[in-house]
Amino acid sequence: MIIMQYRFTLPADYDMDIIQKRIRDNAAKFDDFPGLLFKFFLFSRKDELSQPTKENSYAPLYVWKSADAMMHFLQSQSFVKLTQDFGWPQIDTWLSLRTPSLSDVKNMTYLSIEKQAIESHSDLEVLTRTGQLCAWDVSRWQLLNVAFSISPQANKENYRIGYIASVC
Hints:
The protein has helices at residues 17-26, 67-74, 77-86, 102-105; strands spanning 2-6, 8-10, 36-44, 56-58, 61-64, 91-98, 110-117, 133-137, 142-149, 157-166. It has an eight-stranded antiparallel barrel. It is of the alpha+beta class. It is 19% helix and 38% strand.
């Protein structure tokens, strides 16, 4: 499986209700999207009192079953519309090491991301995989640990989960 994420940093005065409306109006269209295991519709709000953050952002995270499935999305009108609305994104990808089940994450409201460099000549069998979703990028030697919770995690890159699209 392939983990994919792009992130749009939005202006400090951006009306984040627009992002939340976009999620409400469009997220369910991704339920049963061919080849998609999960799409986490993620955002952060600078004005959120329960979890102060430095910026507004929209940062969906996908779990694809295959490279073909990811390619199908990137060639779709959904991706064209995204790029028309927000611009051409930098897309990060990782190879999945562990993925959660829908029952493990469906009631969670926050997702936290921790990226860690994998040192040269590390024993790759003993990498510390702390997240419910773990992956690695072997071109940049980076480990990704993603945790799900009902409240933001201290000292982590936190996002609110607006919706979880999945295979029903």
